[in-house]
Automatic annotation (TrEMBL):
Name of the protein this chain belongs to: SH3 domain-containing protein
Listed transmembrane segments: 133-153, 160-178
Keyword line: Membrane, Transmembrane, Transmembrane helix
Top-level taxon in the UniProt lineage: Bacteria
Organism for this UniProt entry: Limnoglobus roseus
Length: 248
């Protein structure tokens, strides 16, 4: 009996695959859509566990792609947003977010306040990382120190200008790094199924938009009450959706 259990445990252990292997298997099964989605779903679960232990931009990319190829559009968007919250300047994450958004059919209401299509990922944090600012600051610091040394020793004409430029650059770089690191990231709620945005927290309230919000719509959370979530559209309009219809 014990020998049989040991053999079973070894056989089970031999069938354990890594998320990377599950993803590759999904790619190899592209002629069998159902089997491929199952492999991508296993990969997504594995990458999700790894993210919980040690998040990184690379893992966010893997999570986003695995969930998307498994057919889990909202989870894919949530994974990409989690990665961009960690590294908003990551070009690969930005490209994947644009690609996933490109699969969603957003309604185009006449009122710009009711716009559902999200803004392009942008802003200072999307182009410059804190490490870039630190590197520039260190470079300016070296220039400032060299200029100051020459100014207080041999006093060549250029040394004062170099020292001033260097110290101004250090201060500007420090301010930039602080601004990037302290930019507030608003919590995103992602619609998991086509749902009606209402004017109040209940089905008795009139719809806020002419069409239901499509699956994958990205909203900003404002507040909650009685099982309903108050959200803001990319266009600025505010309404309510049931909490069970969004992924936070």
């Amino acid at each position: 009996m014990i020998a049989a259990l040991l053999l079973l445990s070894f056989a089970t252990a031999g069938n354990v695959t890594t998320p990377e292997q599950d993803f590759e298997q999904g790619v190899s099964l592209r002629e069998n859509a159902r089997a491929a989605r199952e492999s991508f779903a296993r990969a997504a679960r594995g990458f999700d566990r790894a993210w919980g232990e040690s998040p990184s931009p690379g893992l966010a990319v893997a999570r986003g792609r695995s969930h998307f190829l498994a057919g889990n559009l909202p989870q894919s968007l949530a994974a990409l947003h989690a990665g961009l919250a960690l590294a908003p300047y990551d070009a690969e994450l930005q490209a994947d977010l644009r690609a996933v958004r490109g699969t969603i059919r957003y309604p185009e209401p006449a009122d710009p306040n009711l716009r559902v299509r999200p803004d392009e990922w942008g802003g200072l944090r999307s182009r410059v990382s804190p490490w870039d600012a630190y590197f520039v600051g260190i470079t300016f610091g070296i220039v400032a120190v060299v200029g100051s040394i020459f100014f207080f020793t041999t006093r060549p004409r250029w040394s004062g200008v170099v020292a001033i430029v260097g110290w101004v650059g250090v201060v500007a770089s420090a301010a930039l790094a602080w601004k990037i690191g302290n930019t507030e990231v608003r919590p995103v709620a992602i619609v998991t199924t086509d749902t009606v945005l209402r004017r109040g927290n209940g089905t008795s309230f009139q719809p806020r938009t002419p069409e239901p919000l499509p699956r994958g719509t990205e909203l900003w959370e404002v507040g909650s009450r009685g099982g309903w979530l108050q959200v803001e559209l990319p266009g600025g309009a505010i309404g309510w959706v049931p909490e069970q219809t969004v992924l936070k």
